[in-house]
Amino acid sequence: MKRFLILETLLMLMIVFEGCGDPYIENDLGSGYYLFADPYEILFSKNDNHYEFVIEPHVVSYVYDSNYILAKTKNSKYNPTIYKFWLVDKKDTISHSIDSVIFTPDNRSYVRSVKGSVRGPYDSLTFVSVLDSLNIQLEMSNVKVCQ
Questions:
Q1: For the residues of 61-106, what is the DSSP string, one character each?
Q2: What are the Cα distances from residue 11, in Å, to 18, 40, 44?
Q3: Measured between alpha carbons, how far is 94 from 74 in angstroms, rounded to an integer?
Q4: Are 75 and 100 in contact (CB under 8 A)?
Q5: Contact criterion met (CB below 8 Å) for 105 and 57
Q6: Exposure of 21 by Cβ count < 10 A (0-12 exposed, 13-18 middle, 19+ buried)?
Q7: Phi and psi dihedrals of 93, rounded to 5?
Q8: Do residues 53 and 59 lie in contact, with contact meaning Cβ atoms separated by under 8 Å?
């Protein structure tokens, strides 16, 4: 009986890890960009050793192609209806890192350097206008939350 329970537990763990993949990297977005799991943030690495922050944490939806990453982040757990929108130009290798004010879920703030190829944060109307001006026609989907 014990052996059966151990095997059943191992099988369930294999299914969980296979379904969710790497517990840290949720998705490889190409060109050195990655969506990391909880708190769902997009990071960049030239060599898989040192990662740069690309946008604020708490990505709730995103989409990417060979040129761009679009992302929507939740601004605050106390006001879950406030979102920020971001555009990452994956081909931009010239822009320098910039400082961004980051808010934690408990509304504390700190400054952190983010990759310079990022545009935003935008409100939803400005974001749509920017996408139209660049002729970007990508549709975001929600992040897959593994339990």
A1: EEEE-SSEEEEEEE--SSSTT-EEEEEEETT--SPPPEEEEEE-TT
A2: 10, 27, 34
A3: 28
A4: no
A5: no
A6: middle
A7: -110, 5
A8: no
Per-residue pLDDT of the chain (147 residues; tens, 9 = 90+): 444 334 344 334 343 344 455 556 778 999 888 898 877 888 888 877 778 788 877 899 999 999 999 999 986 656 667 888 999 998 887 766 767 666 666 667 767 666 668 888 899 999 999 999 999 999 998 887 654
What's the angle, vertex CA 55, arms to CA 82 and CA 119, rounded to 5?
85
Tokens of 51: 């990662």
3-state SS class at 20: helix
Task: Give CA–CA dist 112/102, Å, rounded.
Answer: 7
Task: Give which of 113, 98, 114, 92 is closest to 31, Cα–Cα.
Answer: 92
Q: Count the residues in the chain.
A: 147
The DSSP symbol for 108 reads: -
Which residues contact residue 146 at a Cβ distance below 8 angstroms, ignoring those fewer than 6 apart?
16, 19, 20, 37
